[in-house]
Specification:
about 475 residues; alpha+beta; 2 domains; 13-stranded mixed β-sheet; two-stranded antiparallel ribbon; 18 helices; globular; disordered C terminus
């Protein structure tokens, strides 16, 4: 950023924070918010309460009480943030992002802390976990909300919960249920998501998918390889049958006798229905080392329900990394049958944006620097961190900090090229509507030319690439606003 832009940040920040004035009944309590946020936006290496307070010249206990004890309406602050995003950053193809993040912690006093899977270090570790909902539209993205995941052993220990200030009504909920609560809270505040995207941790939960369908929410979600179903659904029998006309009849509905059993999606990908269907190469986006290309197959899929019967129909997208064929992703979607494949791919591969939000939140505003032992302080820290990041995202958008993709193809930032581009596909093959039909190929080929092979042609030397490898450089817009 230029010097003049940096000078403008302080008045811009004051104007922005004025939108949250009514969250505070007392003026002296309200005065702590700009101190805390200025500390989060500063270049302090550690952005916990004590360093922020020392830098601002106030007593650390003052900011500790601001987070955990003083009376102000943090729920209204979150709702106001939702309203700002809905009013100023909505548009066509708005994508909701569901994911979780973890924070390594010492001791056993931090709310929700225990030895559990910690994604940030890739192993079981003493940590706490929060579930989040993000928002992406065009070249803009931010986090909207977050909630603590309370493990079952915490929920069963009321004394421990009371000591940490966890509300009595707060019980154990699986992460997918927390995600639905975040979605409901956002939509109640006027936000609308054309799509929701999530990883296989959520895609593996049938109740989560059913919950989204009941809310009429379209999604493209990754599912694990052991997801069961059919490409060609078996016949379901609904008429009762009694052998010899006597006795209790067989239960109905049921699969017809001799029906092919459900199979895993990775087995379906190698089965007779898809084995003869050629892979299509799609240029998904541009990475730091060149175009990112995946091979794709697309078909209709009927997942097996808890009753053992076929559900759906849904889209099944099988994507294989050209540079590392061992990396295969499976996505399902409840989108209408005629939805173009390029649209499904664009949504499916947009999950990097929530990972970018987490990295920027932790690297730029200190999301993981919370050191308190009270749930209210953690909740307020999550909300204030989202407010800080929203300010950064708005300033980046205003001052043109985003980057466009080369040649108009999908890039790190920028809405100029958001569609995947078909770079190598076979001739059209016959298939049901929405299953790799010629419509997808014709549209994609006519849009933009692309390379016939990935930029990193030497697969032996190319690194493994996934969502993490595709992401743009982190947001860099630091200015010591506390000065």
């Amino acid at each position: 950023m230029e010097v003049e832009q940096l000078r403008r940040l302080k008045p811009e920040l004051a104007k922005f924070l004025g939108l949250f004035d009514d969250c505070f009944a007392r003026k002296d309590t309200r005065a702590h918010l700009p101190v805390y946020i200025a500390g989060q936006l500063s270049e302090l290496p550690r952005k916990s309460v004590e360093p922020i307070a020392v830098e601002a010249g106030v007593a650390p206990r003052t900011l500790q009480e601001f987070l955990s004890q003083l009376k102000w309406d943090e729920d209204l602050m979150r709702d106001r943030l939702h309203g700002l995003v809905a009013a100023d950053h909505a548009g066509p193809e708005t994508i909701g992002l569901i994911d979780e993040t973890s924070y390594v912690k010492k001791g056993d006093k931090t709310p929700g802390v225990k030895r559990q899977w910690c994604g940030v270090v890739g192993k079981t570790e003493n940590c706490m976990v929060t579930v989040h909902l993000g928002h992406a539209c065009g070249d803009f993205h931010c986090l909207l909300d977050g909630e603590l995941f309370l493990p079952e052993d915490w929920a069963k220990d009321p004394d421990r919960c009371r000591e940490a200030g966890i509300p009595e009504g707060m019980t154990y909920r699986p992460k997918w249920r927390i995600a639905l609560e975040l979605h409901d809270r956002a939509t109640a505040n006027g936000l609308h998501f054309d799509w929701l995207v999530f990883d296989e941790g959520y895609g593996s939960k049938p109740d989560f998918l059913l919950g989204l369908a009941a809310r009429h929410q379209r999604f493209v979600g990754e599912v694990p390889v052991n997801t069961m179903g059919w490409i060609e659904p078996p016949r379901v029998v609904t008429r009762p049958f009694r052998r010899g006309g006597r006795g209790r009849g067989r239960k109905v509905p049921r699969l017809a006798s001799g029906s092919r059993p459900a199979r895993r999606v990775d087995e379906l990908a190698e089965g007779r229905e898809l084995r003869g269907r050629p892979w299509q190469r799609w240029r998904i986006k541009d990475g730091d080392k060149g175009p990112i290309v995946w091979e794709v197959k697309h078909c209709t899929f009927h997942p097996r329900g808890e009753d053992g019967l076929p559900g759906g129909p849904m889209h099944l997208v099988i994507a294989r990394n050209v540079l590392d064929p061992a990396e295969v992703k499976y996505f399902v979607s409840n989108a209408p049958a005629g939805t173009p494949l390029k649209t499904l791919l664009r949504v499916a591969f947009s999950r990097w944006r929530v990972e970018r939000c987490f990295e920027d939140h932790k690297g730029e505003v200190g999301l993981d620097h919370y050191e308190g032992r009270r749930y209210l302080g953690l909740k307020r820290h999550l909300i204030i961190s989202a407010v800080s990041y929203l300010f950064l995202a708005r300033m980046r958008q205003r001052f043109g900090g985003g980057k466009s993709g080369a040649d108009g193809v999908p890039g790190a930032y920028g809405a100029g090229g958001v569609d995947p581009v078909l770079v190598a596909g076979p001739a059209a093959v016959e298939g049901p509507a929405g299953e790799d039909g010629g419509e997808d190929r014709a549209d994609a080929v006519a849009e933009r030319p692309g390379p016939r092979v990935p930029h990193q042609a030497d697969t032996r030397a190319a690194p493994r690439v996934g969502h993490q490898a595709h992401r743009p450089p982190p947001m860099r817009q630091r200015a010591n606003l506390a000065l």
